[in-house]
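Many introductory courses stop at the sequence. We go one step further.
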Amino acid sequence: MVTVLVDGKPVELTKAQIAEAHKSGLRQADYTEKTQKLAEQRKAAEAETAKAREERQKYADGLNKAAAVLEAQLQEQQNIDWQHLLDTDPVEYLRQQHIAQKRHADLQQTLNQKAQLEEVVKAEQASSYREHIQNQRDLLLAKVPEWKDEAKMKQGTQEIKDYLLKAGYSESEISNVHDHRAVLNVRKAMLYDQMVAKASVAAKKINATPARVERPSTGQTQNVDKRSVAFQRLSKSGRVEDAGAVFASLLT
């Protein structure tokens, strides 16, 4: 046993307890370090992402405005009586036709640029999502290092899934749980319920065990008989000698 101070009070711990406390402290330190590192990386990435998102939004706004203007202009040209214009002013007819074709081409190019921008945004969102999932996985493994074994992690996550399904959660709700803190809290609740269930089963087994009834020995039976006789004699006579006999029988 080793005596250590905890909150200013001496506490005796075994070497095994000290070793486990040391491991727990290392895990907590590792978790804290990873959490801080990921927080710094996330902060820097979020700043860059925010800047890029702002620039893309300005670009998207410009494309939307350009598309709106072109669509309005093309809509206005639809009011032209093309046959009458051709008959009365062939030169203007050709000019307006050229303008309309140019506007159609510009509109198509603008729409293509919008589609490309949307694809870039989708790809970035998918990348951010994958990065988020990986970060949460790293934080989870820092708290539950035994899950670095894929088989154990698969078993553990399946147990949590079954636990949540039993609690009334749907498959879709469970599949959307990515925050490692939520997983840790559910795991803690599950392990607690398992512990309580095991304790309840053990208690039922103990209660179901019939109590052992010990029969009095021959000597004990004789002593009881002597006491009964002595009490009966005293109740009849009231003599001091009989009272002494009762007292003596109680000592045997």
